[in-house]
Amino acid sequence: MLVDSPAEFAAKRYDFVIVGGGTAGLTLAARLTEDPKITVGVIEAGQNRLADPNILIPGCKMSEIHQYDWGFKTTAQKYMNGRVVSQPRGKVLGGSSAINGMMCTYSSKEDIDSWEKLGNPGWSHEDLAPYYKKFATFTEPSKKTAEFYHIDNKVIDKELHNANGPVRTAFTNSKRVGGNAWVKTFDKLGLKMKEDSQSGHGNGGYSNLITIDPASGTRSYAGTAYYQPNVNRPNLTVLTEAQVNKITLNRHDGEIFASGVDFTSFGFKYHVKAEHEVLLCAGSLQSPQILELSGIGSRNVLEPLGIKVVVENANVGENLQDHGIVPLSFQAAEGATTFDSFSIAGVEAAATTEFYASQTGLLSSLIDSNANLSYQQVDQRTGHVSSTPISELIQVAVLKAPPILQKQYKLLGEALLNPKDSAFQMMYIPLGIQKGFDNGGGTLSPGNFITLYVSVSRPYSRGSVHITSKDPTVPPIIDPNYLSHPLDVELFSDGVLFLQYLATKEPFASLLKDGGKAFHPGFEHLTKATAGEFCRESLTSEYDPLGTCSMMPEEEGGVVDLKLKVYGVANLRVIDASIFPLGIRNNLQSSVYAVAEKAADIIRNDWKESKGVKIGRKREASPTVKKSGKRARKS
């Protein structure tokens, strides 16, 4: 149930206190409270907007949906000419699943197997596959939709989708500009997807699933899927509009325990007790922030701010990885209707009417056309010869890597050289953007445009997230360090040249003015010599940060163990994308749901083994500094 009073929330005692009512947090809350003996309290900083059409309607104005965003920005990016990049994170019940692009895409088998190879037995793709299946309910497309988007039994393996999970997935019925031309073009190039991406295999172009309730045509996300059906559970309590200040840590019988959470709501400070565990689900940017505010992190970060070091771990906030994304924007063919058409009087109103009448048209989807391609598939079609073979560049990357990254880079290289694995993700949206739009200034040119995007699936560049203040309302310093590794520049250059090639191929070329040779103002024809600088000027974020509380052995860069417990604290876990130790192809949404589902089983099994015993009851003693293990080397 939702409570209006923070005092009422704080007065209760919970077996589990969950920090963050987002994608992972609400998944955990729903699964744990299936046991009526387990009590759960959830603290969320954002509002409850479960009935908000700005969230529910897929193609709503992004300017409207971003009112539920933390509004984070990166530092000036050294390797992108000092540009600053937005980092949207959902500040609303449901978290980023309430404001994302709704793409339901999946990691590769090699991605998740790499997690296990980094020191996490039990975390292979085979182990996680049942949870990819568990979180969703799939609705088959109508025969007409399947024919339009070229969806066949190769793209959808029904056996992988026969679960009855809370999140609804389906194919779009939008039939908007570009629709089936995307798949047809990849098919003509010999690059059509021939396997269900949920299997962890397959490369090519395809129409991707989206997280949508086909009955209403509205967004299906953690708020509506995991929380709303369970709102009346007496053992589940949710407090919104409450800012977490820190996790309180105490020592008992030689161990450090999380005793509860300090939070602020409407200007007043409160404390809520956790009888069993605290589960931190604040996301890749704020989970490390909250750990540091609580005294868990690097001495070099905490002591200058006057924060007592309770558990020393220099890995907190490190290993930040993000899917950068480079756009190439084109003028649409005459007569095309795109999101840019909303500037014309009456177009948006007509699209709204169409959506409510039939769940079709521009407002019925955001991004529903995807492609995963190997390095070899892209390199063979870009028409250039690299001065240095990619295999040599990979070897150099491993040799020059800090010791803490060598194992990661070796795995990245293996994936890059594997012709069956994905090195790139590509997609399109019927909308024009301004080159380098995250750097501010200017307006879009009049007209209709179509934008293609490329992302490097597993970047080599590594960044960090750290606090600069004891004040929890001060955003952390976010530095993804985009394009700091030369291999990323090489890969993005290849990828954007492929987009340019793709735009001139039929039938997709017919959607574009002059067959894909007329660019949106600010964009231009690229060559191998100019592509690298273009990427520095144009790259932005796909909003997929991960890795800042990595699941790995501590001496190799880890913050949590394979049960997602924070090293050095007996009853504190992190469950969100921050625990992903290595990047994955595609978007994070499905993997966050899957990890949260698996975590719920891990936690429930531990609960049964402990027989619900409240741990660390005598917490009067103040915590002392504890090194959680061998001190990790900074990357």
From TrEMBL:
<feature type="domain" description="Glucose-methanol-choline oxidoreductase N-terminal">
    <location>
        <begin position="283"/>
        <end position="297"/>
    </location>
</feature>
<dbReference type="GO" id="GO:0016614">
    <property type="term" value="F:oxidoreductase activity, acting on CH-OH group of donors"/>
</dbReference>
<feature type="binding site">
    <location>
        <position position="244"/>
    </location>
    <ligand>
        <name>FAD</name>
    </ligand>
</feature>
<comment type="similarity">
    <text>Belongs to the GMC oxidoreductase family.</text>
</comment>
<dbReference type="InterPro" id="IPR000172">
    <property type="entry name" value="GMC_OxRdtase_N"/>
</dbReference>
<dbReference type="InterPro" id="IPR036188">
    <property type="entry name" value="FAD/NAD-bd_sf"/>
</dbReference>
<dbReference type="Pfam" id="PF00732">
    <property type="entry name" value="GMC_oxred_N"/>
</dbReference>
<dbReference type="InterPro" id="IPR007867">
    <property type="entry name" value="GMC_OxRtase_C"/>
</dbReference>
<keyword id="KW-0274">FAD</keyword>
<dbReference type="Pfam" id="PF05199">
    <property type="entry name" value="GMC_oxred_C"/>
</dbReference>
<dbReference type="InterPro" id="IPR012132">
    <property type="entry name" value="GMC_OxRdtase"/>
</dbReference>
<dbReference type="GO" id="GO:0050660">
    <property type="term" value="F:flavin adenine dinucleotide binding"/>
</dbReference>
<keyword id="KW-0285">Flavoprotein</keyword>
<feature type="region of interest" description="Disordered">
    <location>
        <begin position="613"/>
        <end position="635"/>
    </location>
</feature>
<feature type="binding site">
    <location>
        <position position="92"/>
    </location>
    <ligand>
        <name>FAD</name>
    </ligand>
</feature>
<protein>
    <submittedName>
        <fullName>GMC oxidoreductase</fullName>
    </submittedName>
</protein>
